[in-house]
Amino acid sequence: MKQDMIVILDLGSRENTAIARLVRELGVYSEIHPHDITVDELSQLSNVKGIIINGGNNNLIDGVRIDVSADLYKAGYPVMAVEHEAATCENKRERWPETEAEIKEVLKEFVFNTCQATPNWNMKNFVEDQVELVRKQVGDKKVLLALSGGVDSSVVAALLIKAIGKQLVCVHVNHGLMRKNESEAVVEVFKNQLDANLIYVDASERFLNKLANVSDPEEKRKVIGTEFIRVFEEEARKLEGIDFLAQGTIYPDIVESGTKTASVVKSHHNVGGLPEDLQFSLVEPLYHLFKDEVRACGIELGLPEDMVYRQPFPGPGLGVRCLGAITKDRLEAVRESDAILQEEFAKAGLDKKVWQYFTVVPDFKSVGVKNHTRSFEYPVILRAVNTIDAMTASIEQVDWPVLLKITDRILNEVPHVNRVCYDLSPKPCATIEWE
User: Fold this and answer.
1) Which residues form the GMPS ATP-PPase domain (predicted)?
2) What are 368's strand-pairing partners?
3) 96 pLDDT band (50/70/90 cuts)?
4) Is it true that domain 123-306 has CATH number 3.40.50.620?
5) Which residue among 24, 149, 257, 305 is least packed, with the fewest CB closer than 10 Å?
6) Can 5-114 and 123-306 be said to share one CATH topology?
């Protein structure tokens, strides 16, 4: 990587990610590394211009307070040692200011004046770097990618197409639990527009048969995940000369998996649950990026905006929004009502404002009146939440006319539905998804 770097050492602060993002907002690349990194390991990183030692309340391992090696202070790098929360520390540290604007000023002084770093962290440079690194790693070999159509896998695919073209083999498995027209959009963008080497597998009936009468949410997840791996493996066995497996691992995956020991960070690719005896070498070109940076990368690569800013979507797809045992009529009710919600939120300008919005159809019916006769049909539940880190979430206060329009369309356009509800439950106590 050609960009200058500021390294943040993890001493248990809950603010590490926020500090890393603020440094990147200044145009300088930053990474979080474990507290016990050695001087030799640090020297192997590219273009390190300075170190931020960020302490906090959580810097205990087995009851023993942790600190960085004293050798790091003598390694020749500019060091800023700071506390964000109250702590006791062997080495005295300054405290962060109270506001984000003040913190950013402190960082600006350290990054540019003390470290003399160059603000050359941007998506154009990132893409150029990753294209060069991928070509060097892969050579003339082939790479296999499970292309779900989600943001991360779509951006990985676009970047690898730019780097190695037809050496990338994409497999898109339609498990029948996709949003409306989602598989069609994947085929249109990647096969028809980007000329990708794309294998499309319609396994919808296979998945629905496996899910018949499975009502427990965790069991549904296991069935969907296991069957997906089986389908993917079956397709992979039909191919020859595949040496690499591409993944959409992003930086929060690494940070959230824990940085308290160097070994955890170095095995970050196992965050996705890959077997230890994996026969492929991994290609993970996005593992430097936060989610908003992944989207910016997608725009830089020329992907359609509606694909790049697509709503977060659970791995099991609509399977966890069709509550209880999945039936075709309720699955279609989820799919069609979700499409109406997406369309009306876009018309109202809420598609960029609200972090996540979707519909849920439970496995019970209620009495109603449709076409002047008694009906006994399903309710549709609308959910719209805002969050920064998905650990907590607040409810979007949607204007009444918008909710009425959505309700009217769902009741008139979606079969087997006679009631619409709006979920007002924040996280906690509720979770974002229902299952």
Assistant:
1) 121-310
2) 375
3) confident
4) yes
5) 305
6) yes
In angstroms, the CA 181 to CA 240 distance is: 31
Q: How many helices (H) and strands (E) does the chain have?
A: 14, 17
**What span, in angstroms and rounded, lies between the C-alpha atoms of 128 and 141?**
20
Q: Give the whole-angstrom CA distance, residue 173 versus residue 151.
A: 16
Residue 401, classified by CB atoms within 10 Å of its CB into exposed (0-12), middle (13-18) or buried (19+), is exposed
Write down the residue that tokens 């607040």 correspond to.
394
Determine the Cα–Cα distance for residues 81 and 93; give it in Å rounded to an integer. 5
Predicted structure pTM score:
0.80
Residues contributing to the annotated binding site for ATP: 148-154
What's the topology of domain 5-114? Rossmann fold (3.40.50)
Q: What is the mean pLDDT of the chain?
A: 87
How far, rounded to the nearest angstrom, does the alpha carbon of residue 382 sit from its chain's CA centroid? 22
Q: 19 in helix, strand or coil?
A: helix
Q: Which burial class, exposed, middle or buried, applies to 355 when counting CB atoms under 10 A from its CB (0-12, 13-18, 19+)?
A: middle
Could you give the CA distance from residue 75 to residue 205 in angstroms, rounded to a whole number?
60
Q: Binding site membership: which residues?
A: 148-154
Q: Which residues contact 176 (CB under 8 A, 6 or more apart)?
A: 203, 204, 205, 207, 208, 331
Average pLDDT over residues 335-360: 96
Q: Domains of the chain: which residue ranges?
A: 5-114, 123-306, 321-422
Q: Report, at the CATH architecture level, how domain 321-422 is classified.
A: 2-Layer Sandwich (3.30)
pLDDT for the residue 277:
54
